[in-house]
Write a structure and sequence with these properties.
By secondary structure, the chain is mostly helical. The chain folds into two domains: 74 residues; 303 residues, no CATH class. Helix content is 70%, strand content 1%. It has a two-stranded antiparallel ribbon. A hairpin with a 2-residue loop joins strand 1 and strand 2. The radius of gyration is 22 Å and the shape is globular.
Length: 433
């Protein structure tokens, strides 16, 4: 006997898979929902496990087929390739170049995809994303997918028993990239600005109620993760929200920020507050081991670049760190930028930083150029740009203490400005007709 959740999931999966052949954006929505929630890990997926369906692969293939079948209906704006997409191809070339010049990768990736393979798969989906989500309505629906995924994961986190916690921290929630608490916290924290933007844009009560509960349960999930990196990310996001907020929405945004801070303090417990005190301590106080180890790892990463400026090779951090710090053999870098620098070399970190810069610059340009649209759509575009900018700020700040250079969410967020750019260009084209 199937549960109602199993039936709903099967129905939505079928809808997105078959629907992708006629409306490719449905495949994109389904793929992102699968990526965020990780159905294969959920109890309600168990009755379907025997079918051996790889949900993400099935959705990706259906989306590719739909893109091919509907290619004549696709609208790419002013150009089929934008600057960010060219940079992404360049970064992919650096990834494969590092494989050629680096030592053979051993150990860790014998049972999972090597980062080169994983990043190539990510690139394929990203190009589908940026060439399919090309109008404001589809982009709005994409943000709603994130809002609903955050709500589902937040509810799941709230309902988990104590045995699901490891050393007092929430673990094992969400898709494969979020199974560790810090990764999950970074993802959920970065969803808060998108939820807030949808709340501001919503004119009806039902969407507002969804946003309210999504924000509440998302914030609670971040607290349950006990992640110091997520706290620092949110703090950076608050400052970014104040300075980046569109003038016409500044008062409303500040009110939401105040309410958000109050709500965050309400769900924060003493254990999390005590953990946060270890972020900054005076010199005569002892840092906790995990915080102190990060500085040693980062210093080792810089030394790797000093020894090999072109990088040690993608995927080779774990087999190399022991040569610099024997007691940390196999330990992660705990820093996205350090790992990019060490594995991909000077050229890798340079392109990555340029990529980040162009994402923000494109969002700023879009906010300015939105004045060319009708007032309602101009307001929508400004809020979308604002939400993505703050979300990026939170996520990229969290990346200072988490290694996410080869995770899909990093590149989805970085490429959202490309989707908005095409949506804006297509809107201008429709106005000229």
């Amino acid at each position: 006997m199937f549960s109602i959740k199993t039936v709903i999931f099967a129905g939505l999966f079928g809808l997105c898979t078959i629907g992708a052949l006629f409306a490719p954006h449905l495949g994109v929505f389904g793929y992102i929902a699968d990526y965020c929630i990780g159905p294969a890990k959920q109890w309600w997926e168990a009755p379907l496990a025997g079918l051996g369906i790889r949900y993400s692969l099935t959705l990706a293939l259906a989306t590719v087929m739909g893109f091919i079948l509907q290619k004549d209906k696709m609208k790419f704006g002013a150009a089929a390739f934008q600057n960010q997409e060219v940079l992404l191809l360049f970064f992919l070339a650096i990834v494969w170049f590092s494989l050629l010049i680096g030592d053979a990768t051993v150990g860790r990736y014998t049972t999972t995809d090597h980062p080169t393979v994983k990043f190539t798969k990510i690139m394929i989906f990203i190009f589908l994303l940026t060439h399919i989500i090309t109008d404001l309505k589809k982009f709005d629906n994409l943000i709603w997918v994130f809002v609903l995924c955050a709500l589902i994961l937040g509810l799941q986190a709230w309902d988990l028993p104590r045995r699901a916690f490891v050393r007092g921290r929430l673990e094992g929630i969400g898709g494969a990239d979020f199974s560790e608490s810090n990764f999950f916290a970074a993802f959920m924290a970065s969803m808060l600005p998108l939820i807030g933007v949808q709340l501001l844009r919503s004119k009806k009560w039902i969407p507002r109620i969804i946003c309210f509960f999504s924000a509440a349960f998302t914030a609670n999930a971040v607290v349950l993760c006990r992640s110091r990196g997520a706290f620092v990310g949110i703090a950076a996001g608050v400052f970014a929200a104040i300075f980046m907020s569109p003038k016409e929405f500044r008062k409303k945004i500040i009110v939401l920020l105040v309410l958000g801070v109050i709500g965050g303090l309400y769900v924060t417990d003493e254990q999390y507050l005590e953990r946060l005190t270890t972020i900054v301590v005076s010199e005569d106080e002892e840092r906790d081991e995990s915080a102190n180890s990060r500085f040693l790892l980062w210093a080792a990463g810089v030394q790797m670049v000093s020894d090999k400026p072109l990088g040690i090779g993608i995927g080779n951090w774990y087999q190399t760190i022991g040569k610099y710090i024997p007691e940390y053999e196999g330990k992660d870098s705990h820093n996205t930028y350090v790992k990019c620098f060490a594995e991909l070399g000077v050229q890798g970190i340079l392109v990555f930083m340029i990529f980040i810069f162009t994402s923000y610059r494109q969002l700023r340009w879009l906010k300015r150029e939105s004045e060319n649209l009708k007032q309602e759509k101009a307001h929508d575009l400004k809020l979308m740009c604002f939400g993505v900018a703050v979300s990026l700020t939170i996520y990229l700040t969290c990346a200072l203490t988490i290694t996410m250079i080869y995770t899909e969410m990093t590149w989805i967020l970085l490429m959202l400005p490309c989707c908005i750019r095409r949506s804006f260009e297509n809107e201008l084209i429709s106005l000229e007709k």
